[in-house]
Structures are given as C-alpha cells and as structure tokens.
C-alpha cells in the first residue's frame, strides 16, 4: 500500500465546507429507490430485510458484504491464482440510479479472467465513504466493477481511494457528472482499462451484493493498493446523488467464519495490455 500524506487541517476544513454545501442539492426520494442508508431510519440498513420479502438475505444471510479485512486473519492462497483483465472500448452510459452513479456498458466491454473463468464487465459505480475497511480503516471512496459469468456468477473488483491527486477516470467523467439528472447520458465508447488498480495484490473472499437484494455467492476482489481521488471529485459524486444518498456505504457485516485469502507474492502479473482507446 502506497504511503500517502494525511490531509492538513486546512484541507479538512475545506472538505467540511464543500460537503455542507451538498445540503442545498435536490435529494433523490427514498420512495424511488426503496431503501436508504440512515442508521435507525425506517428504510435504513437494519430494515432492508424486512422491507421486501425478496431482500430477506439482507437480514438473514451468513455471507454478507462489506466486511473489515484484518490482515492478521487472512490466509495465503494454497494454489496459483491468475487474475487478468481484458477490457475493450464499448458504448456506455452514465446513469443516476438514485442511490449511486454508475457507468453501464451497453456492449461487450471485455472481461475479467479468474482462474480460467471469464466474467464479463457489466458496470461500475461508487460508494462514499468506502464500504470495506482494511484493519479497521475506512477510506474516502470505493469503486465497484461488477462482472458476471455465463452462468450468472458474479465477481466484483473493489478499489479503495484516499485524498491525494485526482483520479484519471473520474476526471474524464467530470463534465457528465456535473450535469446528470435523471436521464442517462451517452458517454460514447468507454474503455475500462483507464480505471487504475493493481492487479497483483488483492484480498479475495465470498460475500454478497452490498445493496438489496443482498444476493450471496459473490466473489469479492478487494485491491490492496489504495488509489488517489481529489476532494472536488468526491464532492461531485455526492452532489449528483443528493443529500439522501451522499453517504451510501452499507455498515460492516459479520464475517461468520469465512476465509479471506491474501494474493500477495503468488498472484501473477497480467500481460501488458494495449493502450486504452475510445471516446472517454
């Protein structure tokens, strides 16, 4: 994990003032989404499993996400693990799903290959602050890249962020994030290869979707190396979803005896990919 400098006191004050300004934004209604993230709210995380019978796993599941990954408790993989991404430019839209912003690919955007199985890239979205924690530490944001196999099995890559420099992918999206309302915005061809993360160092465990219906059996790949994001970019993400959902991280879930695997030192580096292409 790269060493980063802590925000100065002045920087923290700026963050606070910018986040306060979000209160003036037009909020998305809870009714439209069906749930929210407020602790103790009638439609908050503790109630998700009771709101809809199809969401029962949110309350009763035994393999729920997110979790706090404690490095002292993880186990090294006993077998060789191959993680490779083969993304390519494909038509995509930016959509406001009420509870988050997502880039959704409308064509074949490539795939993730995990131990020989292909998982096609479907979409990516952001949570602020991070949903997963590492050794008790929560980060300023978390990106989820959602993939699915031909059998309907899901793999989610989770990338964590701290305040340092702007994220290059969000920089390209900024003009669209600033104007998005309820209608999707056509982004043209988007190559997910521009999303920066370290393929070779990650934690892996079996969990769930972190939003209703909280479906289990999801393979989580939590990247160890923390990436950079700017204050402005976080403010823009929060502004776009409004006051109700600008804190859209599900509380931590119990590990329930699950094993968390550590890839370090035995996961292969992927082949060098071609330079990213496309409109974005």
UniProtKB/TrEMBL annotation:
SUPFAM superfamilies recorded: Carbonic anhydrase
Matching InterPro entries: Alpha_CA_prokaryot-like (IPR041891), CA_dom (IPR001148), CA_dom_sf (IPR036398), Carbonic_anhydrase_a-class (IPR023561), Carbonic_anhydrase_a-class_CS (IPR018338)
Organism of this sequence: Stylosanthes scabra
Domain Alpha-carbonic anhydrase: 33-264
Subcellular compartments: Plastid, Chloroplast stroma
Database matches in Pfam families: Carb_anhydrase
Keyword set, alphabetical order: Lyase, Metal-binding, Signal, Zinc
Entry cofactors: Zn(2+)
Reaction catalysed by this enzyme: hydrogencarbonate + H(+) = CO2 + H2O
Signal peptide per UniProt: 1-25
Protein name (Swiss-Prot/TrEMBL): Carbonic anhydrase
EC number: 4.2.1.1
Enzyme class, spelled out: lyase
Family as reported in the entry's similarity comment: Belongs to the alpha-class carbonic anhydrase family. Belongs to the alpha-carbonic anhydrase family.
Function noted in UniProt: Reversible hydration of carbon dioxide.
PROSITE patterns (alphabetical): ALPHA_CA_1, ALPHA_CA_2
């Amino acid at each position: 994990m790269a060493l980063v400098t802590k925000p100065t006191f002045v920087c923290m004050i700026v963050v606070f003032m910018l986040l306060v300004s979000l209160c003036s934004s037009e909020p998305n209604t809870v009714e439209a989404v069906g749930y929210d993230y407020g602790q103790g709210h009638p439609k908050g995380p503790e109630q998700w499993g009771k709101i809809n019978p199809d969401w029962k796993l949110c309350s009763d599941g035994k393999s729920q996400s997110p979790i706090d990954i404690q490095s002292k408790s993880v186990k090294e993989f006993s077998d060789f693990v191959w993680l490779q991404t083969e993304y390519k430019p494909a038509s995509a839209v930016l959509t406001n799903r009420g509870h988050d912003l997502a880039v959704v690919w409308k064509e074949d955007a490539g795939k993730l290959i995990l131990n020989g199985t292909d998982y096609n890239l479907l979409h990516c979205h952001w949570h602020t602050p991070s949903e997963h924690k590492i050794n008790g530490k929560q980060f300023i944001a978390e990106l989820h890249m959602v993939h699915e196999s031909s059998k309907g099995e899901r793999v989610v890559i989770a990338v964590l962020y701290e305040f340092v420099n702007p994220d290059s992918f969000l920089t390209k999206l900024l003009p669209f994030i600033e104007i998005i309302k309820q209608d999707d915005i056509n982004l043209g061809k988007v190559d997910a290869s521009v999303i920066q993360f370290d393929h070779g160092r990650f934690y892996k465990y079996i969990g769930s979707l972190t939003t209703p219906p909280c479906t289990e059996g999801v393979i989580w790949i939590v990247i160890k190396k923390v990436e950079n994001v700017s204050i402005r970019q976080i403010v823009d993400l929060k502004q776009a979803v409004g006051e109700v959902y600008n804190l859209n991280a599900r509380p931590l879930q119990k590990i329930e005896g699950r094993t968390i695997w550590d890839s370090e030192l035995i996961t292969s580096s992927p082949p060098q990919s071609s330079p990213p292409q496309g409109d974005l």
